[in-house]
Amino acid sequence: MEQELAIELEQEKEQEQTPAKALSQDEVLQAALKLFAQKGYYNTSLIDIKDAVGLKSTSGLQQFFKTKQAIAVALHEQILDSFSISIDDIRRRNRKASEQLREVVDLLFKLTEEAPEIIQFLLFIKTSDFLPEPKPLFDIAAFNKLRRIIQVGIKEGEIKNIDALLAYNYFFGIIQHTLSMLLNDSLPHCKDNYQTQVWLVAWGTIAKK
Amino acid sequence: MEQELAIELEQEKEQEQTPAKALSQDEVLQAALKLFAQKGYYNTSLIDIKDAVGLKSTSGLQQFFKTKQAIAVALHEQILDSFSISIDDIRRRNRKASEQLREVVDLLFKLTEEAPEIIQFLLFIKTSDFLPEPKPLFDIAAFNKLRRIIQVGIKEGEIKNIDALLAYNYFFGIIQHTLSMLLNDSLPHCKDNYQTQVWLVAWGTIAKK
DNA sequence: GTCTATACGCCGATAGAC
DNA sequence: GTCTATCGGCGTATAGAC
């Protein structure tokens, strides 16, 4: 009896390779992010998520998030907010639109290398999968900040005097498509090469000649 | 008795407002296309589809397609094939890469106006939703034909001497992003305006100056 | 041959007891 | 936090009505 109990405790100890703490909300989000990015929202079940964080039952997730949808929504907000903050930071540290956009592009490429799931989620997740009605572009803070950069660039004479939305479209159309191909392994990953080259072309579509 | 029969025949006749036939495979595909484009693959149930084609039971769909997945696959093939054929036609009728690409762009804009579901499906559906393993880009005939146009353009000196994949990336990055915004109503629909303007910018990224 | 009604099996999300 | 139970929805299979 006592032995059996000891063994059970032993096993329990081994399971908790994570030293002491139980489980943090952020671990759940991180695990979900990976899974959503890999397999998509609908192909990811709560069972997958609970496995990824080493829980025995999906019920354990409920302390953090009531529903699977709530996980995706939280993730979405967190990533967009974080990106938005990065943009603020970039705008603070640089004055010219060209510099700001260059840093944004650098950030996106860096993330694509180091945390592809984030880019996957940021650019290619269909929010309609987990949001009742997809948020219009203009309600997204990060988008508006990028547009702002372009508007200022136009006013300051750095960027061609065209509709800011069109300019956004040209510039980020190229960037986004490039990232997409990188994520697919359709383009080889010698990043330093592209990064400058792609930047030059994208900037060339909107720069005042 | 005879009267009843007569009435029944009468009713039957009225039901068949579609002259004679009951339900065609293409009707199913068309209905599914609309639904998939609107709500996505997973948010569309067979019940939605059967409602859309006016059936009383989902079983009626099985005469055409064994499974829901089979519907999506058939749709995917049909659209890609049709697009591929259009490209062949365009290549036959034009000799210069610039003319060919211009016509491809015109076609895409036209479809975006007249049959947005097709563009939605063509450009923005995640094939991994219904294909066990997503087809690599290089196995898609239409993609390779577009790339071919660019390769020839490079050889003939029309297009800058850069990697054909990168050129594809620049050109269609802009086009695709534009179509995406049109589908979202993020860009107003005064197409004649954009179409030429967007084309010029996209072509400018790859044209030999 | 074309469609309906019904039923089965499965899985996922959620709630409650322990 | 875990386990168990429930509930609902979906895709699919079958048998039969017209």
Entry summary:
Chain A has 209 residues and is an all-alpha fold. Chain A is 67% helix and 0% strand.
Report strand % of chain A.
Answer: under 5%
Largest interface: A-B, 31 and 31 residues
Distance between the termini of chain A: 83 Å
Order of helices and strands of chain A: HHHHHHHHH
Question: Percent range for helical residues of chain A?
Answer: 55-70%
Largest sheet entry of chain A: none
Number of helices of chain A: 9
How many E strands of chain A?
A: 0
Radius of gyration of chain A: 22 Å
For this entry, give a set of tags.
homodimer, 209 residues, mainly alpha, 9 helices, 67% helix, elongated, disordered N terminus, DNA-binding
